[in-house]
Amino acid sequence: MTDSAESRADLHSHTTASDGRLTPYQLIAAAAQRGIRFLAVTDHDTTAAHDEARKSASELGVGFIAGVEITCEAAGGEVHLLGLGVDSACERLQQLCREMQVRRLDRFKEMHARLQAAGVTFDLPPTQPGTSPSRPVMARALVAAGRAGSEDEAFARYLRKGRPGYVPHRREPVGTAIEAVQGAGGVAILAHPGLYPDGDAAIEDARRHGLDGIECLHPDHDEIHVQRYMKIARKLGMLVSGGADYHGPGHARSHFFGKRFCPADEFIRLQMAMAGRSSRTSL
User: Fold this and answer.
1) What is the distance between the alpha carbons of residues 263 and 9, in angstroms, rounded to a whole number?
2) DSSP 199
3) Does residue 241 contact residue 9 with C-beta atoms inside 8 Å?
4) What is the C-alpha separation between 223 and 204, in angstroms, rounded?
5) How many CA atoms lie within 13 A of 122 on its CB side?
6) Are 224 and 274 spatial neighbours (Cβ–Cβ below 8 Å)?
7) 65 near 224, Cβ under 8 Å?
8) CA distance 154 to 141
9) What is the pLDDT of residues 16-60, one digit of tens each?
10) Which domains does the chain have, with CATH numbers?
């Protein structure tokens, strides 16, 4: 693996369009300040941040990569699929995002209703069209209402599995998500496999549906995980991705922003794959 200042690429980040804490402009500005040359904006189940992020990146000299992170099911469990280099205007991708946003909003309202029924009263946080409300947004609302002292406490008391406000995701089959990403000219990357109960099974299931690559470098992957998934990617002839999974200041992973990158040689391969996929889908 090689690295260089000219190709410092972070391929996993979030804005206020999903569960991030910074607006698209603020995120791009933070990336520029930390010396990031290329940034993929990969909000959960939405591309709502892309227009502002693309404009901001052009103004601030950051290479913008249009991305998305889709909540899926593979090998019987929840996984996340990163789409990198997607055409934000692709109707099939937008249709899938709209469906996922409706599910997320329904889940968001049900979380609030369950908490209210449990005696945890507070106002339902407002949401914007095209965005993907999530548990971190609910956690911040609980903190703002004085129901928890921190987001970690809100999760521990109310929002984790087995707690009164927990509602599971309605997940999309990984094959459907891969098809939508690739149909939009993007490459499909399985995010942070080390976080799943059986990352190997998730990779194999997704690979049967045309998966392009693996996110090997992630803040929650230690060096053993990194080397393990790099080895798997090479053995299978798959692409390698990496990034900080940045959600904004104060988040547990925030100190990795500007430090966790896709290796330079692997980023070149990803750029070539994104360009090739885009050119084929535009024919």
Assistant:
1) 8
2) H
3) no
4) 22
5) 20
6) no
7) no
8) 9
9) 999 999 999 999 999 999 999 999 999 999 999 999 999 999 999
10) 5-97+173-281 (3.20.20.140), 102-159 (1.10.150)
Q: Which two tokens stand for residue 230?
A: 């790099």
Distance CA 136, CA 186 (A): 27
Helix orientation angle between 174-183 and 199-208, rounded to the nearest 10 degrees: 50
Tokens of 9: 């690429």
Q: Which residue has the tokens 């965005």?
A: 131
* Helical pair 199-208 and 223-236, crossing angle rounded to 10 deg: 30
**Number of Cβ atoms within 10 Å of the Cβ of 121:** 11
Q: For residue 215, give the nearest of 15, 232, 17 by alpha carbon.
A: 232
Cβ within 8 Å of residue 24, ≥6 positions away: 15, 16, 17, 41, 49, 50, 52, 53, 56
Please give the Cα distance from 42 to 187 (Å, whole number): 13
Tens of pLDDT along 192-244? 999 999 999 999 999 999 999 999 999 999 999 999 999 999 999 999 999 99
